[in-house]
Amino acid sequence: MNPTPPNTLQEIQALEQELLEKSRRLAELKRAIPREQIQEYVLAGWNGAATLSSLFDGKRDLIVVHNMGKGCRYCTLWADGFNGVWRHLANRAGFVVCSPDTVETQQAFAESRQWSFRMVSGAGSSFIQDMGFRGEKSWLPGVSTFHLADDGTIERVARAEFGPYDLFCGVWHIIALLADGEKGWEPKYSY
After folding, report:
1. Does 139 score more than 80 pLDDT?
2. Which residues have CB under 8 Å from 33's CB, separation 6+?
3. Quick check: 73 and 187 in contact, CB under 8 A?
4. Mean pLDDT over residues 98-113, rounded?
5. Residue 65 — pLDDT band, cuts 50, 70, 90?
6. Is the dihedral of CA 9, 14, 15, 17 positive or negative?
7. E runs forming strands in the chain
């Protein structure tokens, strides 16, 4: 085994530190953008209509994951990951996954995946599209964060899109460390 040149290790450490610093700076910049006032939306909850404001769960902040639905194995990968951490997120803010699937489709798919987080359907609402997660041909995945202002208005704080190697799914980053990287790997519904 050939030893790694010290300058390569130093470059790796410097890049890792730079990525961390840039990630923090990116989040700061997103939070610094003037907040957009959002209208109240009515979405389809599993127990009936759910207003956007009700999803805050008594907190001042809300995380909405925009999921493309049952037909997207990539979104399924992200949701599988959120299933393990959503309680941590919900301790700080309201947390919900929103997809264009019907409530019935969501319920059946969530049960098959053993998801335990709250879901709402954007079917019949312009919410997903208004938040910028509708492309020309399909839905788009990502996350929006909201804040409940002192006067009761809802403000959108930030948004981010999901995709391979984003900051929201560690699977890609771990697979990238394998000898051949992802080597054509893609997520599946089952393995």
Report:
1. yes
2. 158
3. yes
4. 98
5. very high
6. positive
7. 36-38, 42-45, 48-51, 61-66, 94-99, 119-121, 142-148, 154-161
